[in-house]
Amino acid sequence: MERLSIEKDPFLNSIFDAIPAYVFIVDADVRILYRNATAARLLGLNMEQVYMKRGGEVLHCIHSDEDPGGCGWAEPCKHCVIRNVVAEAIKGNRTHRKFTRMELRTEGAVADAYLLVTATPFLYRGAKYVLLILEDMGKVISPEDLNKQLIEEIEDRRHAEGMLRRNLAAMEAAMDGMTIVNEAGSFVYLNNAHARMFGYGSPKELMERPWEIIFDEGELERFHGEIIPGLLHEGRWRGEAMGRRKDGSTFNMELSLATIPEGGHVSVARDITERKQSEEFIRNILETVDEGFIVVDRGFRIVSANRAYSEQVKMPVSEIIGRHCHEVSHHLPHPCFLEGEECAIKHVFEKGEPHTVLHMHRDSFGNPLYVETKAYPVKDKDGKVISAIEVVNDITEKKRLEEQLFNAQKMEAIGTLAGGVAHDFNNILTAIMGYASLLRTKMGKDDPLETYVEQILSTTERATNLTQSLLTFSRRQVINPRPVNLNDIIRDINKLLLRLIREDIDLQLDLSDEELTIMADPVQIEQVLMNLVTNARDAMPEGGAISLETRQVEIDELYVRRHLFTRSGPYAMITVSDTGMGMDEKTRENLFEPFYTTKDIGKGTGLGLAIVYGVVKQHNGNINVYSESGKGTTFKIFFPLIKAKPDGTRPPLPPPPEKGNEVVLVAEDDDAVRFLIRDILAGSGYTVIEARDGVEAVEQFRRNSDRIQAVLLDVVMPKRSGREVYQMIRALNPRIKPLFMSGYTADLIHNMEILESGLNFISKPLMPDDLLRKLREVLDR
Q1: Residue from 40, 78, 79, 37 nearest 57 by CA
Q2: Cα R_g (the chain), whole angstroms
Q3: Pick from 683, 759, 688: which is nearest to 723 by CA?
Q4: N or C: which end of the chain has fewer CB within 10 A?
Q5: Is the per-residue pLDDT at 58 higher than 60?
Q6: CA distance 512 to 268
């Protein structure tokens, strides 16, 4: 197993040691290849103890509350959170997280903690590793002061250079390559470490060669154009260069040069191959995580940024470095806190503690990005904050889904209210419509009061349509779905749609060649199309074009999550577009709410799009709208496709009701409705026995069981429901024929298992002819 060299580099090691979380780098078998100081203190081991263990240490000391018994230290168990999270991250090749209560088991103690376990896989030299971070209650990385480390390193190097002049023995003991070069560019002295670094057997072998031989040929131009002039001008030079060994191979070295009073210069060379590899290792880690990561100095300038942040702000990293964070994130010429924005970095610099804020950034195109920013201080050894690390998490998609969910819940609440009103309203309408119909049948053709009756029926019919519209919106009306070809529905209704629009509007059809079979009530789908085309017409007072097209589309899991679909798979898509006035954001937000309309008073009920929304949702579909002011509107409607042959038959027109002479038990708790049903049935030859609640209905049947041929039961009644009454009556006479009625919503009827059981049902408000036909159908079956 290759030993990682992070612990040997103070610059990189300080980053990991500054993180307050427990940080590990493990392989696929969860063997520790590296742990930061926080993790080492947790397990009571120092770095050398970790790396001296053969093959690394297997991490299996942490258990979740899913396995309260634990497994001790003997063998890792299948419930280990660490192993499970690492396995999922490697399997999915992406960051995997789990928040859980855990036991931190060390060799001497057990402690409970609530931790967020984050595993991020990455490749390094062809092998797969995992960056594992255990965060205690939201504490994330907080690196130490990096700049101070560099300053101390320079001071140490200068001290070493002074010691070089006074004590060559100390130079021989140094791990870095050290030389003294005269003004002619020849070696005066070099230590054994320098000779070994460049592949020579002894210092003498290299002493006979010019100093510049240690540079790669590609660096010679830079050697003469930058390094030597910088050394002569400043008296010192420090930087990275590409070294060349005796065998011609190259390596990365860090070189420090300083002139000496005697003439010439002293140099200190360090092989930084491992450090470069570690930097690449760290860079791969930061580039792998999906959260934006920047380092900001006290002047609010960005000194480092990862790929995720670059993608969030849609700018290359090369253009981000050196710019102020408020320029890049907010597109502001001055700090965002001057505009009233809460700034997490400002809080860190002022308070010296981590801080989290939620606000809006903008990308380079000005589009809003909702981000959660977490800032952490980077301190020097004296505790002074010298820079800040900010983790920027783009939650734009999350915010959008929250808004979608809120709107869905709002629509559901409005639908619940509409459904609750429907029952009592339908009972009232049943009485008004029923008695007005009976009154009309008893009038002569020339009766002057017939006009008034027609007005009553016309008004109650509008009220009935209003109730049905509300139930349609709330997805609580009873529908009659069957396999239908969506294209056939559009072709059948095309002539009607043409009559709805004006001559200055062009209706264009573009139907898919594929057969789009869906499970739907064709009448309801026609209602959707009529409402959308009518709205498009009204949005184009000066004329325009309406396009209606169908396509088969495949909805994947990502689209399902983003748009709150019921499931993934094949869908039939209807697109209705117009070239009209379009809508602003406020209109789009309230578009599907009942009674919301932008039309003048008297020109719309505000229920058209509410009905569209309800029908689509009741058919397990989805609807999206795209519109801007002055740029037209497009509705996209999705219905799940099914594998079945479409049923192209249409129901025949109902025949006139027939009279009867049977005895019918009518159980209805609303007096007005019960009296109306009694008069309707009695007027057609039936004998009616009445009951006001469920208990009375059972008693009446027991007394008249030999006479009653059918029972007409309200689904919801006091004392006993219609379903309970029927079960008790059926026990007395299994051949009794039931007919259920209700003004309640369809979901309640389904809960009562009326329709699922194949029982006969008629919804309120009841029209006399519809009731008589249904009763006759039940009796004759």
Answers
A1: 40
A2: 41
A3: 759
A4: C
A5: no
A6: 75
**Rounded average pLDDT over 639-668:** 80
β-partners of residue 189 are 180
Dihedral angle at the C-alpha atoms of 277, 283, 288, 291, nearest 10 degrees? 160
Task: List pLDDT tens digits, range 604-626.
Answer: 555 667 778 878 887 888 888 88
Q: Which two tokens stand for residue 457?
A: 């029926």
Written as one letter, the residue type at 250 is T
pLDDT of residue 422: 64
**Sequence-distant (≥ 6) Cβ neighbours of residue 403 within 8 angstroms:** none
Mean pLDDT of 108-119: 69
Cα dist from 211 to 187, 233, 250, 451, whole Å: 6, 19, 16, 117
Average pLDDT of span 586-592? 71
Contact indicator for 63, 79 with CB cutoff of 8 Å: yes
For residue 697, with 0-12 CB atoms within 10 Å meaning exposed, 13-18 middle and 19 or more buried, which class applies?
Answer: buried
57-58/31-35 β-pairing: antiparallel
Q: Tell me which of 404-408, 603-607, 660-664, 674-678 is least confident.
A: 603-607
Packing angle of the helix pair 694-704, 722-732 (nearest 10 deg): 20
Helix (H, G, I), strand (E, B) or coil at 134: strand
**For 208-229, what is each residue's pLDDT tens digit?**
788 778 888 777 778 778 888 8
Quickly list DSSP for 605-663. Answer: -S-HHHHHHHHHHHTT-EEEEEE-TTS-EEEEEEEEB-SS------PPPPPPPPP---E
DSSP symbol at 218: G
Q: Which sign, positive or negative, has the C-alpha torsion 397, 367, 621, 762?
A: positive
Rounded distance between C-alpha atoms, residue 231 and residue 224, angstroms: 11
Percent of the chain past pLDDT 70, that is, above it, reads: 72
Kindly state the tokens that stand for 264.
């010439």
Helix (H), strand (E) at residue 361: strand 355-362
Pairing of strands 236-244, 302-305: unpaired
| Residue carrying the six token digits 């869905």 | 408
Separation of alpha carbons 241 and 97, rounded Å: 41
Please report the pLDDT score of residue 234 as a whole number.
82
Predicted local confidence at residue 686, as pLDDT: 94
Name residue 457's amino acid. L
d(CA 208, CA 211): 9
C-alpha distances (whole Å) from 620 to each of 49, 617, 773 are 61, 5, 32
Return the HEC string of 18-38: HCCCEEEEECCCCEEEEECHH
Rounded mean pLDDT of the chain?
76
Distance CA 56, CA 35 (A): 11
Give the pair of three-digit tokens for residue 34: 């590296």
Residue 367 is predicted with a pLDDT of: 63
CA neighbor of 480 nearest in space, from 518, 516, 517, 522: 522
CA distance 566 to 560: 7
**pLDDT mean over 727-752:** 75
Q: The pTM is what?
A: 0.39
- Alpha-carbon gap, residue 705 to 699, rounded angstroms: 10
Identify whether the C-beta of residue 426 lies closer than 8 Å to the C-beta of residue 476: no
Q: How confident is the model at residue 576 (pLDDT cuts 50, 70, 90)?
A: very high
Collect all residues with Cβ–Cβ distance below 8 Å to 593 and sequence separation of at least 6: 410, 411, 414, 606, 610
Highest mean pLDDT among 20-24, 394-398, 754-758: 20-24
- Per the structure block, which two tokens stand in for 616? 């689509």
Structure confidence at residue 246 as a pLDDT band (50, 70, 90): confident
Q: Rounded distance, CA 746 to CA 480, Å? A: 12
Q: Select from 217, 216, 196, 200 the least CA-distant residue to 208.
A: 200
CB-based contact 670:690 (threshold 8 Å)? no
Give the three-state DSSP class for 527: helix
**What's the length of the chain?**
781
